[in-house]
Structure formats: structure tokens, C-alpha cells
Amino acid sequence: MVWGIDVFAGYKSGHFYSESLSLARCAEDRFCPDPLGFGRDYCRLGGGIHLSTEGMLLVRTDGTAVDQIRVEGDVLEVATPNGDRQQTDIFIRPDGSVYPEKVAGLSLLGYSDNAITTVQFQDGGTVDNLAVKVRLQSDRMGQTLERWLAIAPFGYQQMDIGPAHLEIAKASDGEELTELLAAPTENNHVFGELQIGTKRLDVKESLGQLVKLSQGVTAEITDVWADFRLDKNNQPTSASESFNNPALQVILKDGDRQGRWFIFAKPDFEPIRAGDDFNFTASYIAPKTTRTDYFRIVETPNHQLFYAAASSKGFKSGEFVPGEAVTPGWADFKISLAERIDQAIVQRQVVPVAPVAQGLRDQKSGAPALHVATADGKDAWLPWNEPASLATEEGSYFAAFSPKILQLPFYVKLNDFIVERNEGSESVAMWTSEVTLFDPATDTAAPRRVWMNHPTWFRGWKLAQASWNPGDLQQSTLQLKREPWWVTGLTWLGSVLVVSGITTMFYGRAIAKKFKPKAIPNIQPDEPETPNTIPIFQALSDLTILKKSS
Asked: How far apart are the first and last CA of the chain?
């Protein structure tokens, strides 16, 4: 269980900062709840007093400066029907119970670190909204899968499942219906098209070519970026070869006049223009990705259903009716219409995943959730970091079970992430984060380097290299920690005592023997020597003495 007291220690740079005094105790072999994966510590049965603030910070070279860290613990924010708001730190005990037991009229019944959101479509909507349940069956694999597709919400219009891609669409007229049911064609515009003025250009064919526009103006496409980014030197580059964020550069000239335009495929991004202004409109139409394997369900204006199926074995289309299975060409899979709702509404429910049988591996497929109940007895599970609404007779409660965030008194910007490898191999020798620390109080910036076992300190905080992502070298995870000075002093004192004890245990006897004074020997006085006599003469001497005495 985790008990904590937050003491506000001061006000700096417009932000409060706090030092957390907490007594933490975790059950043996249990992970402390941390759904983001930041600061998740493996806890053994035991107790310890923590007199510091500690958290993890994810920074990216293509991101902005960050001034918030994720610290241990979670918060529950509740807005009551009468408009009152309350935010409270909550603590999870090892048995799944929660402290405190009540927050703003909600009872906190328990916690699960593995909950999922189930979705069910029901009839009863007021507007047309087609939802269909499709069944995929394979006798060879012994599998039967059922999934819902719906026109709304948008997220249920398509999904990837099993061997291919499922999607649903609604045709507004006969022309659109013909297009949706047509066989896929090869995309001839692999780089997309550029519409500039009255000219429509194929980007690949026009790359590097001068194109005459009206009024004597010429245009030249000089660069194309499939996934536009700015590097550490603020120069355009492509993060990948996939057309996720396409952009291109066009140079316009008219005599001595020259303009350079950056045109983006995303419609909400206006072209960036530098140099002389030219009175032309321009738009970039990104290349369309053609899927080779898909099963598309199309609703006609008169509510009929058709399908279009493309696979490596060919293309087929036709009417999609209940009771008739379609074989799209993916192994022996058959697709059939299991259920249809014309005016569907979506019902979502968060439920905890039941534990698997003992001895089997628990496949974590869900996310943490908090079990709460309203005053009128209605209970629900709040998914982690997703605000939810709870309807009651008094009105609706709005609640959010989210991570605990701490505001830093400075900003951290990742400039570069460097991975050094051992010579002659691909094994990693070291990784380093080059960061800039911005202090808004003094309007200064300090460049720093952080690598393993070499932290840096700034404004009383220690920044250490925590982890990195081998698949994305544009990000780094730093550990930030702040301790009172006397805690640091006690830590060093304890370390000195431990080293002294080890030294004494191994070398104390030898050192004591070396410096021990030498003992003075006890010399006895010499006794007079007794003359040595031969035994026969000693006997004659004794006989003479006896004769005289007689």
C-alpha cells in the first residue's frame, strides 16, 4: 500500500513544486501500477521511507521542450452534477482496494490493472447508422471470429483482423457505388500530384523539370519528403519512406523574382512561402495507398448491401446477403453476414479481465481501471487516462482516473540522441542525450550531456539517463529526482560508513598489527654458575666427608 503526504515547499518561476513524503509497501512479486511504463519499479515485501520527488520524462528531438514529469501515484478528478470539482490523490493497496474510499460523492470500490473496453451495437437510434456483424470462419484452422463494423463512430469503419483488412462504406450515388465496388488499380502517381494554378502535375514526372505557368512564371519541384520532419539543424528531412506526412518544395521564378514554397499534403497545413510573393494557389494531393487484400462492405442509397473482396487470388464483388458465405481467397476463410442493424447506437462497457487458470501465462491485453459507484448504486469502471460520464438521477458525474503529473520549474529539450557502438560489432557501448535546459526565471539556457552513470544537476534536480528505444533514436527517457540536501548528506554518510566497515572487516587486523608497539622481553638476572664435576670425584668427596664426621 502507498501512503503519501505532499508538502508544498515553495513557489518558483510561476510553478509550485512539491516534495513527497511517502511510506510505500508493495506485495511480493508485484509490479506497482504504472500503465505508461514510466517509473515502474519492482517491489519486494518490505517498507521504506522516501523523502524525494522522482519521475520519468520522455523527450524527443522532433518535439518541443517539456516541463512536466510523470511521478508515482494517480489522481481522480470528479465534476459533480452541481458543478463542483474535486481532485484527489488515490493509492492502490496490494489487495486491490483503494484509499480514500469516497471522493466527491463517488465510492471507490476497487482497482484492476487489466481491464478492457467491450463494444456492442444496439438498435434504437434516431438516424440511419448501419452496423453489421461479420463472421470469419476457417475449418482448416478451426477458428470462428465475429467483429462489428459501423458507419459511425468513425473508428469502426475499418479494422485489421486475421489475414486482411475489413472496412465498411456508404455510397451516396451510383457513381460512388461503382467506384467502391471496382477492382483495385495500380497507382500511377507514386509521389502524388501537385495542383498549382491551372496546372495539375505528376510529382514524380515533374521532379526537377521547369514547368511554365501563366504570366511567364515557371515552377520547379526540387524536393519531395514522404514523412516531413525538421532535423536538429532545422533542415527538412524525411523520417521514413512511408507517405505519412508528405510535403514538397517548389521554386517559382519570374525574371529576377523568386519564391520558395513548402506545400503539405495535409489540407489543414497552409503552404509556407518565402521570397517574392506569387499570386497562385497550390495544393498537394498525396499518393493513395492501394491495398492488395481487403473485404469491403458497401451500403447503397436504398440500403442494399454489396461486397468487394481483393486477395492474391483475384478480385470478386457482388451482393452481400445473410446466409450466403463469401470466400475472398484468404486460405479457406469464409465471410458471412451474422447481424445487421440499420439505426445502430454503440454501447461501450469497461470490464476487468478474469484471471487465467493457475499455471498459465496471463496475457495482459487491457489497461488499468478504477471501480466506482454513485450514490444511487450504479457502478462502473473508469478506464485509466480516459474521462468518462456517469449518469445518475441527480445528473451526470464526469470523472477521470489519470496519472499524477508534476510541473517542473524549468524546461528540457532533447537536441540529439547519440548511440555509440563497439568497434567491429553492432553491440551498443554507450548512449548519450544532448539536452538544453531552459530556466524561465532567469531566461537562460544551459546545454548539458547525460549518459549512463553520468547525470547532471540543474535547479536542485538530478537528471539521469534512464532508458532508450532502439527502434526510435529520436527519443530518450530521463529520470528526474529532487532530494533535500540533508538526505543527500545522509546518503553519502551511509556510503562512507559502509566502505569503512568493509575496509575494517578485511584489513583491520593487518592494520592494527602493523601499528601495534613491539613488546619488551623480560630479562632475568644471571645466577652463579655451578662448577661442573665428574660424578666419580663427587662420590669420593662425599666419602671423605663421612669419614671425618665419624
From this structure: 111
Grid cell 471522493 — which residue?
103
Asked if the structure places residue 135 within a domain, the reply is no
Q: Is the pTM of this model over 0.90?
A: no
Neighbours of 507 (CB within 10 A): 11
Cα–Cα nearest to 416, from 432, 438, 434: 434
Instruction: Name residues whose C-beta falls within 8 Å of residue 230's C-beta, 6 or more positions apart in sequence.
Output: 62, 236, 237
| DSSP assigned state of 280 | -
Q: Which domain holds residue 277?
A: 193-285
DSSP H or E run through 247: strand 247-254
Residue pair 245/264 in contact (Cβ under 8 Å)? The answer is: yes
Pairing of strands 98-99, 102-103: unpaired
- Considering its fold, how many domains does the chain have in total? 2
Residue at 362 is within a domain: no
Question: Has residue 26 been placed in a domain?
Answer: yes
User: Of 483, 505, 522, at which residue does a domain stop?
Assistant: 483
Domain boundary among 264, 285, 306: 285
Regarding beta strands 164-170 and 294-299, do their DSSP bridges make them parallel or antiparallel, or are they unpaired?
parallel
Q: How many helices (H) and strands (E) does the chain have?
A: 4, 39
How much is the pLDDT for 391?
A: 82
C-alpha cell at 1: 500500500
Residue 537 located in a structural domain:
no
Q: Report whether 447 contacts 436 (CB < 8 A).
A: yes
Q: Is residue 489 within 8 Å of 497, Cβ to Cβ?
A: no
Reduce the secondary structure of 457-495 to three states and give it as a string: EECCEEEEEEEECCCCCCEEEEEEEECCHHHHHHHHHHH
Q: pLDDT tens for residues 246-264? A: 999 999 999 889 999 999 9
Same domain, 14 and 109: yes
Q: Which residues of 305-323 are buried (b: 16+ CB within 10 A; e: fewer)?
A: bbbbbbbeeebebeebeee
For 263-288, write each residue's pLDDT tens digit.
998 877 888 888 888 888 899 988 87
User: Of 190, 244, 226, which is closest to residue 236 (Cα–Cα)?
Assistant: 226
